[in-house]
Please model this.
Amino acid sequence: MSLNKERKLNFALAINEALTQMLESDPSVMLIGQGVMSPWYVGNTCKDLLEKFGEARVLDTPVSENATTGAAVGAAIAGMKTIVVHPRTDFAVYALDPIINEAANWHYMSGGASNVPVVFWLIVNGGGEQAAQHSQALHTIFAHVPGLKVIAPSTPYDVKGMLIAAINDPNPVVFIDNRSLYGFEESVPEKMYEIPLGKGIIRRKGKDITLVSFSHLAQETLKAAETLALEGIDAEVIDIRTLKPLDEKIIFDSVEKTQRIAIIDSAWKFCGFSAEVVALLAEKTSLEGKSITRINIPDAPAAASNSLEQAYYINAEKIVSRVKNFCSDKVIAN
Amino acid sequence: MKYSSTLLEQLYHMMVKIRYTEESLVEPIMNGTVRCPVHLYTGQEAVATGMCTHLTREDYVFGNHRSHGHYLAKGGDLKKMIAEIYCRETGCAKGRGGSMHLISPENGVMGIVPIVAGTISLAVGAAMASKVRKDKRVTLSFFGDGATGEGVLYESLNFASLYKLPIIFVCENNLYSTHMTVKKIRPPQKIAKIASPFGIKSFSSDGNDVLKVYEVSKKAVDYCRSGKGPVFIEFFTYRLRGHVGPDDNIQGSHTEIRPLSEVEKWKKRDPVLRFAKYLISKKVLSQNKINQIIQEVNNEINQAHTFAQNSARPLANEVLEYVFK
Ligand SMILES: Cc1ncc(C[n+]2csc(CCOP(=O)(O)OP(=O)(O)O)c2C)c(N)n1
Model:
């Protein structure tokens, strides 16, 4: 209501606002998935949507990931703009057929005759002793497949603009989200706006090393960069925001300047996002004089026990120590 | 059916063991010593007890997120289970799994996972292995009403029927799938009916009366073991606790999930109290004997908690252990 530009919103409510405004402004928008009426599943992201827009357009579904996702794809083929939520990425594994075989290939298979404006919204929620089937960050599986865009915003401002852009995008977009961001608050405009998919952003300018990340780890990386600055390492922090299509240029330009890069990824190293960035650097730029490192979770499923979780997940502290080691020649001796 | 008093006492003992184990977890969950998600089986004890009593140690059981009762009824070790719930190295999955990943292959508890319907097809596979080996094992696949939304259940029914596999599909219909009533997730038809189109023999039964469970289970196990093919059973029951953790409040601000009057109604059908009353009325057990059983069980449970709390957590440098064998 107000024109107050400084209005603050947390990440979950920024999602809620994007969904509300899209449902309000475009009658072809629908939301479907498990837990849309339960904060226990999806935090406040779907608050009041069912009440406001009714059971025809906002559906809390049975445990039927494959059918639910396929239905979202089919409705999109039939002219709706659908968003399908999976409160754990792991549950969406049941839905790989409609995502990978159907939605991703559809436009191409039909020679461009049909397209699929669907958003697959998957929430990663690692930790809390929830073990292997409640924590997997499977960004890379989707990024591997042609036909899917993959986004992973890290701020309330971005998530609102990118989610709106994703819903309006005529292509299937996989939006991978992290529950640990939900409480993060910043000023978010009330008006509707779009942030173009496929564009990274420099969150912090620096000259000594490029740190590339996305989603909640972009925030951890930013925190790490502040600590590193105190140690004499001036890091440039890139939040890539979209894994595919990837903003290669923003990475290449930064590395050209800093000559060093650490890629920080919430998933496994082998065949993953960090491997892709290194491959692109090697293929498309000169590596001479440059040094590269990757920070990933260990190549193991997530264990339940807290002692193993601490060893497993990446946080700002771990980023600091890994980057300090990597840039040991830059650390001020004291 | 005629029951020996030994059998009746054995059934009661197992139900008490499951109930008091579940209730012993409430406090550690509330005070944060147990941190992993815990789905309590309180209220459904008769199902696991009645079903597993007919099984031998070699028979197979697969379960889901709410499987403490299945694990115990099939002979799983209490200490190892409690230690797993505390995510300790001495747990049955060495602290890697927590409450939702119990396992005890030596007792036929082949695996338990929280992906809804995730083990149903695996159970079909185990039954297939038994058929190949002609080892006469029966496999039990436990799942909830929520799992009837998943396609893999229907694929599994078709498959099991085609190959006449020795598997019993056990659906514990406790009327809820997390925050959703069964009315919201299924057309109003008996779940037991879903097996008929596949030509699978099916039963439905009161799941809060252990003797009824025992009887239907005997029929099912006999049928299955004699090579006639799969069986499907729907048990009507109710979880007296929340979906995850002790109460519904833990599921966020959505506390109105279950009407209090409904919970109260089902408390009157509490399978453990109901069976105790029956045993007393039939003079099978005296109140003293019952108190003694409860006391013994509680001692065992307390020891299990102490064992778990005194056990070490897995070491951080072992994070890559068990990735491959
Ligand atoms: C594939 C998958 N989707 C969603 C979930 C989240 N989830 C956990 S338990 C549950 C409901 C299960 O209900 P039911 O099968 O009736 O078992 P109950 O909890 O009632 O014992 C859901 C949806 C999950 N674990 N796995």
Residues A 34, 63, 65, 91, 94; B 39, 65-66, 114-116, 143-147, 174, 176-178, 243 surround thiamine diphosphate (CB under 6 Å). Residues 68 and 162 of chain A are 23 Å apart (CA to CA). The mean pLDDT of chain A is 96. The first helix of chain A runs from residue 11 to 25.
